[in-house]
Design a protein that fits this description.
Helices cover 29% and strands 24% of the residues. The chain is α/β, with parallel strands linked by helices and 388 residues long. The strands form three sheets. The protein has a six-stranded mixed sheet, with helices on one face. A six-stranded mixed sheet has the order 5-6-7-8-10-9, with no helix packed on it. A three-stranded parallel sheet has the order 13-14-15. The longest helix is centred in the N-terminal third of the chain and has 24 residues.
C-alpha cells in the first residue's frame, strides 16, 4: 500500500529515528478510585500524547509508532477520539502511525470509521496488513488486531512481504510473546523470532505495559502513562535509531509519565521501629502529589508498633495522589504489657486475653488465628484512640 505522506519523506536519509509507544488506553475509567483522582488519571493519559510529541521533537524523531490499544475500549466517546486525533494533528511536523490493538481491534467498525473521518493528514491508521512506505527505503509492516483474541500469529504475513533490497523493514504489532501479556488468558501467538524470520530491522510491540526487550530487534515499549502497580517503573517510550538495513537498532528509554505508581516493600522485625523504617523509604515530598503508593508491610511487629505504623500511614495519606496499605503479611506480637495498655482488668482485658490466646492457638486454623489477631489489633487501636 502506497500512502501519500508529507513531503519531508520524499528523500530518505541513511539514519531513521522514531519513537515507539503503545497502550495509551485513552478513556480508561479507573472506577476503583475517587472521582477527583479518576479525572486526573484520565487527563494524564490524554496528556501523554503531548509528552510523546515533545520527546520525539527533542530527540530528532519525526515519526511515532503507536503499537495498539490507543483507546481503552472499542467504543470510546466521540470526545475522547476527536480530542486525541486533534492533539496529534496539533503536532503537524510529526507522523503518527496508529495500530488497532486487542482493546480497540478492527471489530470496532464505528471506531475506525470515525477515526478515518476525523484523522488529520499526519495520522496514518494502520488498519490493513499491507506495507506502509514512509520513504523509498523505509517501510512499516503492520499487523492490526482483528479481534480481542485473534487466536493466530498476525505477524506471520511479514515474512512473505517483499520490499526492495536495502529497505528498512519495521514491524508493528500488538499481542503476546510467551509470558509477556497483560491478559493471562492470551495464547502465545507472536513468534519470538519473528524479526529474524521476516528480516525485520525492528519489531515494535504493544500489549505488555512494562518496557522489555524480547531480543535485540524486538521490544515492548510499555505504556507511556502507567495505570496499575504491576510494573512498578516510570512510564516511558522507546527512542529507536536505525543506521541502515541490517544494522542493530539503537534503543533507549525516554520518560513520558505524569504519575508514578510505586510499590514500597516494608520488611520489619519484631521490636523494630516501623515508623522510622517507613520514613527512610518514602519518596520525597515534592513527588507525592503525583505518586500512587502501595505499602506492602511484611514480617513481625509488636502491637504498639503496628498501631503507630498504621497511624503514621493515615497521617501522610493525604500527601499522595493515592495511598493503600496491605499488612496481611505482617504478624503481630503481643504480651501482657501490651494488653495493659488496653485495660488492666474488666471486660476489655478479658476480651484482649481471649483474642491473644486464640491468635496463638496452634489447634486453630490459620484463618481463625488471623481473624483473632486482627480483632486484637482493632481493639488495641480503639483503646489507644480514646485513651486520655
Amino acid at each position: 500500500m502506497q500512502l501519500q505522506l508529507p513531503a519531508r519523506w520524499a528523500l530518505c536519509e541513511a539514519m531513521f529515528r522514531f519513537l515507539h509507544s503503545s497502550d495509551l488506553h485513552l478513556g480508561k475509567r479507573f472506577g476503583n478510585f475517587p472521582d477527583d483522582l479518576r479525572g486526573r488519571l484520565r487527563e494524564a493519559r490524554h496528556g501523554a500524547i503531548g509528552r510523546l510529541a515533545a520527546q520525539a521533537l527533542a530527540n530528532g524523531a519525526n515519526t511515532i509508532l503507536l503499537a495498539g490499544d490507543t483507546f481503552d475500549t472499542e467504543t470510546p466517546t466521540p470526545a475522547i477520539l476527536r480530542q486525541a486525533l486533534a492533539e496529534m494533528g496539533r503536532h503537524a511536523s510529526l507522523t503518527w502511525i496508529m495500530l488497532p490493538g486487542n482493546h480497540d481491534s478492527l471489530l470496532a467498525d464505528q471506531l475506525w470509521d470515525a477515526a478515518r473521518a476525523a484523522a488529520p493528514a499526519n495520522v496514518v491508521l494502520a488498519v490493513t496488513t499491507a506495507p506502509i512506505d514512509l520513504a523509498p527505503d523505509i517501510t512499516v509492516l503492520p499487523a492490526p488486531c482483528t479481534a480481542r483474541r485473534p487466536g493466530r500469529d498476525l505477524t506471520d504475513w511479514m515474512s512473505s512481504a517483499a520490499t526492495p533490497e536495502g529497505t528498512l523493514r519495521i514491524g508493528l504489532a500488538h499481542g503476546a510473546i510467551q509470558q509477556f501479556s497483560e491478559d493471562t488468558a492470551a495464547s502465545d501467538v507472536i513468534a519470538p523470532n519473528r524479526a529474524t524470520l521476516a528480516g525485520l530491522d525492528y519489531l515494535a510491540l504493544g500489549d505488555w505495559h512494562g518496557q522489555i526487550a524480547v531480543n535485540e530487534r524486538t521490544w515492548y515499549s510499555g505504556t507511556p502513562e502507567p495505570d496499575r502497580f504491576k510494573h512498578d517503573r516510570p512510564g516511558s517510550a522507546l527512542l529507536v535509531t536505525l543506521d541502515g538495513a541490517g544494522a542493530p537498532p539503537q534503543v533507549s528509554a525516554v520518560e513520558t509519565a505524569s504519575f508514578t505508581w510505586r510499590d514500597l516493600s516494608l520488611e520489619l522485625l519484631s521490636g523494630e521501629d516501623g515508623v522510622m523504617a517507613l520514613e527512610t523509604l518514602l519518596p520525597i515530598a515534592v513527588d507525592r502529589r503525583q505518586t500512587l503508593l502501595r505499602v506492602m508491610a511484611n514480617g513481625r511487629t509488636r502491637l504498639p508498633a503496628r498501631t503507630a505504623l498504621l497511624a503514621a500511614l493515615d497521617q501522610i495519606a493525604p500527601d499522595f495522589a493515592h495511598l493503600e496499605v496491605n499488612a496481611d503479611g505482617l504478624a503481630t506480637d503481643a504480651d501482657a504489657a501490651d494488653l495493659d495498655r488496653i485495660d488492666r482488668s474488666g471486660a476489655l482485658r478479658d476480651a484482649a486475653n481471649a483474642l491473644l490466646l486464640e491468635s496463638q492457638d496452634a489447634a486453630r486454623s490459620e484463618a481463625e488465628r488471623e481473624i483473632a489477631n486482627a480483632a486484637l489489633v482493632r481493639l488495641f487501636t480503639y483503646c489507644e484512640a480514646i485513651a486520655p
